[in-house]
Amino acid sequence: MAPERVRGILHGASLSPFVRKVRGALALKGVEYELVHVMPGAMEPAFLAKSPLSKIPVWEEPDGFTLPDSSVICDYLEQVVPDPPLYPADPRERAQALFWEEYADTRLVDTATPIFFQRVVRGRIFGQPVDESLVRRHAEDLLPPVLDQLEALFAPADVAAAPAVGLAGPPRPATSQLIRPGACDVPGSGGCGLPGGGAIRENPPARPDRPAP
Q1: Whole-structure pTM over 0.85, yes or no?
Q2: Measured between alpha carbons, how far is residue 112 from residues 70, 71, 91 in Å?
Q3: Is the CATH number of domain 91-202 1.20.1050?
């Protein structure tokens, strides 16, 4: 039976796109939560007991209920807090949305993550040299076909006809925006020059009464 008032702890790091996905869902549904920072590669045994795959995020509720995996967490939130919805009500449309969510979690993340890792993790966090040839290869050769496929098969031709905000993302920027100098000058995950960075800065996935970490 769904709890009357859902609240909990989200274990993870905001640098993770999977954590940000869940934070966006929590914000859209108005669910109160605490973000407990867990970094990949520095996971304590207590966290690993909650995450069988040793991955972030993990959702935890006051009664001890835990749930790993961003897509599973979003589906759970949809069931216990159905309004506003994240997914379409129509079975076929919902199935398509679930597929494109998986597509973004795998193909899109695998293609875009090296840009983020080089520009943000290596360049901004650790102050290490950025492999610009790798960034350019992913931004110019590998990522555009993935975004083209998303636009051709998923995004509406008329932006004005786009569905209400849910798990769908904002339009893609030009490739030059992905690799432009200073793309990471804005602190936080929204300043990496990746698709949706501006939208994340303008609409941070956090409760309005809770400062983003």
Answers
A1: no
A2: 18, 19, 30
A3: yes
